[in-house]
Design goal:
4-stranded antiparallel β-sheet; alpha/beta; single chain; 6-stranded mixed β-sheet; globular
Length: about 260
């Protein structure tokens, strides 16, 4: 479904602050894969997500999606097939618009817009049913501004917005990092259910190694702009967070501050 081939991204190219964010990254994601991505700070995890979504251009290499070369395709053209949830709960929604208005915008992602009512009775029923499946009471608050929601509620809404058009690929960029432990587990439970119910392929960046091991069928490890290790289902099931720290040292021989890999 998704293939990155020798992708390289350089920021501030040709200046004294030039930084290589991705150094020849190659990765394949098949239909139904749920791949978790871990690594140290500055490893290139978020840059890889942004390159896949089209918000950061690549300097060289190739990205194929559903058999098409999308390397130079802008993000708005990929939006109909790729959903994304950000780390910051404040991102991905419009705070002064109501819950149903935000959902209406998401439902039109990738489509032509026109001057007409965005929320009609039929669509409102659909939104209420979809929110009801989250199990957090938002189905009774359709007209409330999103600014009134808690961080956990907002991430649940953003997750619904990202998947309401049933994308082929879901990108999750540390989408529980800003939440307290209770809301982290709530959002991860809804994430697992959403991916399974829609049969999505997903790529989840996380600093939480327990989440990386407990969710998904594959885990990849990044460092300094490269993928340094990949673990399939069988090996993944035998790993612990401490094993991942040890494997990182083993693969890279790097001095790693374990505080950046949260257990």
């Amino acid at each position: 479904m998704l293939a990155l081939e020798d992708v390289r991204v350089v920021f501030n190219k040709g200046t004294i602050t030039e930084a290589v964010a991705l150094r020849g990254v190659s990765l394949q994601v098949n239909k139904g894969d749920f791949v978790t991505v871990i690594g140290s700070n500055g490893a290139g995890k978020t840059t890889m997500i942004e390159t896949i979504s089209g918000t950061v251009p690549l300097d060289s290499g190739r990205i194929s999606f559903m058999g098409r070369d999308v390397s130079r395709q802008p993000d708005y053209e990929r939006a109909c097939c790729i959903g994304r949830v950000f780390q910051n709960p404040l991102a991905g929604t419009s705070p002064l618009m109501s819950i149903e208005e935000n959902l209406a915008l998401a439902a039109l992602r990738g489509q032509r817009r026109s001057l007409r009512l965005a929320v009609r009775a039929k669509r409102r029923r659909e939104f209420r049913d979809a929110l009801g499946e989250l199990g957090i009471g938002l189905e009774n608050r359709l007209t409330d501004p999103v600014a009134l929601l808690s961080g956990g509620q907002r991430q649940c809404l953003t997750l619904l917005m990202a998947t309401i058009r049933k994308p082929d690929l879901l990108l999750l960029d540390e989408h529980t990092a800003a939440l307290d432990p209770k809301n982290q587990e709530l959002v991860m439970s809804i994430t697992d259910r959403t991916i399974a119910d829609h049969g999505l392929a997903a790529l989840m960046v996380t600093h939480n190694m327990s989440h990386a091991l407990d969710h998904g069928n594959r885990t990849v490890m990044m460092h300094a702009g490269t993928i340094v290790a990949s673990f399939g289902p069988e090996e993944k099931n035998t790993l612990t967070p401490q094993c991942l720290v040890e494997k990182f040292h083993e693969v890279r021989g790097a001095e790693l501050d374990d505080r950046v890999l949260l257990c």
